Description:
Blueprint: E1 7-12, H1 23-37, E2 40-45, H2 61-78, E3 84-90, H3 92-107, E4 112-119, H4 125-131, H5 143-153, H6 160-163, H7 166-174, H8 180-187, H9 192-195, H10 199-209, E5 224-229, H11 236-248, E6 253-258, H12 266-284
Parallel strand pairs: 1-2, 1-3, 3-4, 4-5, 5-6
Helix pairs in contact: 1-12, 2-3, 4-10, 5-7
Amino acid sequence: MAAGRVRPRVQRHAGRLCRVPGRHAAVRAAVREALLAAGYAVAVTDYEGIGTPGEASGVDGRAEAYALIDAVRAARRIAPVSRSWAAVGYSLGGHAALWAGSLAASYAPSLRHVGTVAVAPTTQWALQFAAARDPQAPLSPFVPYLGRTLPVTNPGEFRPDEWFTPFGLELVSRAGRACIEEIAGAVAGLTNADVFRDPAAAMTAFTALFADDEVPTARYPRPVRLAHGTSDALPAVLTEITAAQLAASGTDIEYAPAPGADHFTVLSVAAPQVLTWLDHLFGEG
Length: 285
């Protein structure tokens, strides 16, 4: 099944966080084309449930990892690609890529995982929720998506109307059909008090419900490479903390800040570094 320089590489996109055409979709397409031009096969997966009846799970670490790794298996059934692969993801897709890197050896030992690359990954849920306990703190544009995820991943345990204000519920509904750029514009200037009935209580509940989906920080068997924009609304310090935890566990880790890049420009800024990392990972793996 292997064929020369055609090497599997999985890209886990932000899925529902950007499903409409636009500036950001064009950047992702450009990165994908650059990878193809460099000789990589690109298998793109999505969240469990996208394209099928019902709501998608969104944040579910193991489900994300399994879907990503299964995309490599599927690619090998339809194209002459090698069994060597890297997990690559952006934003919440970075969360998926890290989970895949953690589980790759045990879930797919017949494949040859060479490493993980995550750009602006969503990590450190507990720290994010701790900061959001402040009613007057700016609202994160990711919050409405979490309001859609929790009823799916925790059926019977989470009811959005118990935690969100009527306006907050409108945003949660809108998140089912809008990409992150649109939601970011909609929440500009809003605070946690605008969307949560009791921000502190809601964040306590969120912390408990997302505990099992924190990015694993025990030693990864293969290298991990992280990049994050220094002007990202999703603070780069979260990725810095994750990098430090991975280093402490003995993981082969590199972190590259992208000066001045925000959540929507970091992918294009970091693209050359991603390609360099992949070339090294496949060369060393």
